[in-house]
Amino acid sequence: MTLRITVFGENRHEKFDQRVQELYPEGMHTTIAEGLTRTLAELGVETEVRIALLDDIEDTLSDEVLAETDVLTWWGHIAHDDVPDEIAERVVRHVREGMGLLPLHSAHYSKPFRLLMGTTCNLLWRNDNDEERVWTVSGSHPIARGVPHPIVIPGQEMYGEMFDIPAPDEQVFLSSFSGGEVFRSGCCFYRGKGRVFYFSPGDQEYPVYHQAEIQRVLANAALWAAPQEGRERTPVKISNAPRDWFRDGVAGPGEDGEALDRVI
Amino acid sequence: MTLRITVFGENRHEKFDQRVQELYPEGMHTTIAEGLTRTLAELGVETEVRIALLDDIEDTLSDEVLAETDVLTWWGHIAHDDVPDEIAERVVRHVREGMGLLPLHSAHYSKPFRLLMGTTCNLLWRNDNDEERVWTVSGSHPIARGVPHPIVIPGQEMYGEMFDIPAPDEQVFLSSFSGGEVFRSGCCFYRGKGRVFYFSPGDQEYPVYHQAEIQRVLANAALWAAPQEGRERTPVKISNAPRDWFRDGVAGPGEDGEALDRVI
Amino acid sequence: MTLRITVFGENRHEKFDQRVQELYPEGMHTTIAEGLTRTLAELGVETEVRIALLDDIEDTLSDEVLAETDVLTWWGHIAHDDVPDEIAERVVRHVREGMGLLPLHSAHYSKPFRLLMGTTCNLLWRNDNDEERVWTVSGSHPIARGVPHPIVIPGQEMYGEMFDIPAPDEQVFLSSFSGGEVFRSGCCFYRGKGRVFYFSPGDQEYPVYHQAEIQRVLANAALWAAPQEGRERTPVKISNAPRDWFRDGVAGPGEDGEALDRVI
Amino acid sequence: MTLRITVFGENRHEKFDQRVQELYPEGMHTTIAEGLTRTLAELGVETEVRIALLDDIEDTLSDEVLAETDVLTWWGHIAHDDVPDEIAERVVRHVREGMGLLPLHSAHYSKPFRLLMGTTCNLLWRNDNDEERVWTVSGSHPIARGVPHPIVIPGQEMYGEMFDIPAPDEQVFLSSFSGGEVFRSGCCFYRGKGRVFYFSPGDQEYPVYHQAEIQRVLANAALWAAPQEGRERTPVKISNAPRDWFRDGVAGPGEDGEALDRVI
Predict the structure, then answer these.
(1) Which SUPFAM superfamilies match (chains A, B, C, D) (predicted)?
(2) Which of C24, C141, D54, D122 has CB 3.0 to 4.6 Å from D164, enough for a Cys bridge?
């Protein structure tokens, strides 16, 4: 199996912010993409990684690209509003049909994540070089496999509770910050036939995505979020189900002419 | 305490469908409102119940009305699209700030519910007079208090799985139908500071809302969903939190000039 | 309604440890009991509080006492093994039938809590005067009502993850410590017809139970955990259910001669 | 990877009950083991399957065998009490350390399952040849991969709600029965570092384990429950954690002389 990953980057800070240019000379998306490729290779997984940037979003997040994407990572911060609503809804539709989504850090405020959560996704923040420690709280979760307990991030923007999200379906990581705040930093959500893993470490002003442990988390998460082999990429349907539709010889197409799903 | 309930009714079938007119001569909303008033009175709870109809939705679901509403019940079916987006978003905003919401039956497809879920809310259906049995699966849930196990509904539209919703935060009821399908018929969701209880029994072509057991469920749910006394109706905020903001004498307003919440 | 609370205290440290005697001259149980009584009175709730100590546990946690107890708080540390297995199982049985249980701090290792969890309940710890900050992560939870965000506890034993418990049914509080660790410090569990709230702040060597915010949490938790009026205190039963048992005129006693539950 | 499965069978009905002998001439355990081997082979997974029977339980569920077992399936019914407490606790210990456990049908009452749940595990039942339909309610769960929606079991013992278990961490399947009852028939639980999948179809008097769809569920579940490669089989530990133990060069063994876990 080849894992097909699309790395979406806003690529705005990289154009004007010297600190970001020093940390990520080829853009944050390049560091994220290379980290995924290398770490997954070490885990024996072949990958095909594409880059999608806000400037070429109409092409790089087209319906065709998303249909061929197993897992989409999403980093955005200052230009969430520049993502067309239609593309945000397209991403959401593909998640519901089975595509994995990894919203990273400030993507808590991205359009696709907010649409999928239904909440404000508000939180506390402070950009003041806090130390962050990322703790595993699930003993058998594949996203925590091989990850140090805790991951120590020497400097990072603080994200703190109350984080206005639905209770995660699985809580993998919790973070504390040197300033005393806590945060649900690694959260799994199931939506439709797709999987979403929100991971908060990773601000543009800190070299977080260069850290091997962070790359390992992202690699684990990509494996976790990918659709399973042999599952069709379709949404859960609305169907008029005639009586006994699920019995041999009885089931026919629904009123709307579409055959009823016999496998979810 | 007086529980302030607003009963939203689409009131469309009532205008042209003879079967519905016979079952609900004064409209489904009236039956729902009267059932809530009577059942809550029996439970010793005083209520103030308003009716809001699609025809006067701009007035009856105004910001002022919602701010004075503890719990909003919502029934809609053929005219979901006639609810203005702005009002759907207003309802969602009030839920996030603490208002309770009870989407009923075909309101699985209403705009506010879909916005709060983030999923398609698709399902199977069949209008063929199925018997529905509503089973309690949570031993200590207040919404199941005093409710028969099972509630038997002699005739009802079938709603079946797969129901495309996020996994409920609390599963209170599961239903089976005479045709063999199952459904997660009573589901609790926490969103922001608000509570949502989706309850599927109740189609316009069956006298479900006249059934005392169903009225009891709705009354229990209204009590469960109401905001707690002494809690402010505000959303979870996004705030820039200066270091040590939570220590005595240090905390000041955030960068945006708004004081940080010290009580959620 | 009068809320009937039984406060179980191990009362061992109090007998030989001077530091504990200074902090809690009448025993930790007395401080806990008085805090509950006073805080609940302020909330308008009448209480009837009994004390149960390890030395008189056979009498004070008898079947009769537990049957008349709405909520049992449990503090123990160095003498968990001195609690007879039979009494631990009795407590567990009453929880399953509807009694509320509040295991406090080192009661993570108490026999009733471990029996109810099914896990080791292991954790990290350090007794080194850490500052603990208790953060609310659920926007509408009654146990967080009126509680500062965060509660700051100036000195406290550190309890850290990985805490080996089942994922809580509701996560109310998360704590961070000055040493950098995090902990799921306020956790709700539903078991049978009963409710369990584990709350970790509260070591014998620190004056935690004298803090008004902590007393408020315990008072809120007692209200949350109490069985609802009008619910019978019985376990979920195993029953042989004859076909159509739930239809009028058909249901009879199960094979074992016991009538089937028609209300959970 | 070779998946190492141990199939535990009580093998009592097989000794005296003619109906069972006809359905399962070589014992239910043999049918379960062969179904797992064949189905996993079809999925491209190599297996090593051992049989463990109650008569030789001391040897076949020894500490050594369990340490070499990735997933243990458990079927028992009339002889739960003949399983020594020590062996039940041994199984529980291995689950907490990472072994997968699949309790089947009447194993809802087995000692290991009850110890892991902490509840009574009571339910309704009726042995009267009900039709059971097993519906998928999780759109992306690997245990539902390739499984018909619904699985129809022509004849089966009815298991009905209220089933006294903690709310499952993941609900995969819900069943309805021709008599009208519903049941949470496929339930995932995380306990310590291990995974538990309870699956209710499968009574000794019906040929359920010969059904290919049921075999597929068990194969999927074995893959889901198996410990992940590269994860050590150890319990979550209790440890005294010196300040800064997680920083480079500072961490030493805990007070108890055991090194602290740096990977969960």
Answers:
(1) Class I glutamine amidotransferase-like
(2) D122
